[in-house]
């Protein structure tokens, strides 16, 4: 059973005991990501994530790595547009030592000036690595353009220009203002007793006191239909087609998940079967939703020889039109429900997956559903719901097209016309 507790300092903790496992997955989730940054601070949330591993008042960076390796555990972190997570997984018998390591990083990081300068080179290489990957780059360009003018458009890594201005004072002040009791959630899943865990968390984190800052940037993004491209020296053309879509907690989120699975979510999807298996026009094609607190987008990605572009666009339009006009059969609905629910159940056999699901849900929504409740809600989706979602999402007048790679002979406005015409 999932239990939601609050420590004496206001930090929320979501706990799920799994007595049949021997490990514990532990995560600290902070509601601070790239979408909370202003222009001057682009990339600073990700920079802070890196600096947490660079030494504390009690440990050097090498000692952090050695102490965790000694336990045979795993420790890591990541930054998204809306939150940052620090997490570990270890045997239950090693939990106290692992907690001491991660809490030391979280509460006592040095943010040393020399380490900040050194890490700038590492992050610059990370930025360059993603810029060299056209699949990543085209999606970054797409996000920048459809959310242009809002903080949701900011790249998670920042830019070489913005990170060049980060020093110890700026990073520490940002950390102090954005890492707070009221926007932090601790998620624990695995082999432990809830009362004992709360005692341990209170002992470690209970004295962490923070003050609310004067200003936290509100994410207020408006979708903008756009056409954008960037030339890169590649053989293939990388394309994204995007539509405005649902926010994270939307009443149609389960029919939406079914729509994505049917349309482009796997090897049996319409797009994969039509584009790759039946016509051999592309090696990679898939769709994915991006859902945020107050908005969202739905995107189709493919990589192909530029000469195949019009044919693939025609097939994408055909698949969308077919879904909007004819919906899906009850047989396909039931098959897709089984697929999604099975994947959900299998995924939830991982303590890390459950920790993530519980932590993000409590952080962003204030609650976490039991597995049975999620399954029950998913089972309630109807084919009429899926048809409604298809007609709401796939508005050709709001389509955005983004290209990266071999764009020299690609007329994106002409591609947009394929979707806008009635033929």
**Strand order, biggest sheet?**
1-2-6-3-5-4
Say what the CATH topology of the largest domain is: Cytochrome Bc1 Complex, Chain A, domain 1
Number of domains: 2
The biggest sheet, with number of strands, parallel, antiparallel or mixed sense and barrel status, is:
6 strands, mixed
Description:
- The structure is a single chain.
- By secondary structure, this protein is of the alpha+beta class.
- The chain has two domains: 2-205, Cytochrome Bc1 Complex, Chain A, domain 1 (2-Layer Sandwich); 227-420, Cytochrome Bc1 Complex, Chain A, domain 1.
- The chain has helices spanning 44-51, 61-71, 95-108, 113-131, 134-146, 160-163, 168-178, 194-205, 253-264, 270-278, 309-326, 330-347, 351-365, 371-379, 383-393, 412-420; strands at 2-6, 12-17, 23-30, 74-79, 84-91, 184-190, 227-231, 237-244, 284-291, 296-304, 400-405.
- The chain has a six-stranded mixed beta sheet with strand order 1-2-6-3-5-4, with helices on both faces. A five-stranded mixed beta sheet has the order 7-11-8-10-9, sandwiched between helices.
- The longest helix is centred in the N-terminal third of the chain and has 19 residues, at 113-131.
- The mean pLDDT is 94.
SSE layout:
Blueprint: E1 2-6, E2 12-17, E3 23-30, H1 44-51, H2 61-71, E4 74-79, E5 84-91, H3 95-108, H4 113-131, H5 134-146, H6 160-163, H7 168-178, E6 184-190, H8 194-205, E7 227-231, E8 237-244, H9 253-264, H10 270-278, E9 284-291, E10 296-304, H11 309-326, H12 330-347, H13 351-365, H14 371-379, H15 383-393, E11 400-405, H16 412-420
Parallel strand pairs: 2-6, 7-11
Antiparallel strand pairs: 1-2, 3-5, 3-6, 4-5, 8-10, 8-11, 9-10
Helix pairs in contact: 2-3, 9-12, 9-15, 10-11, 11-15
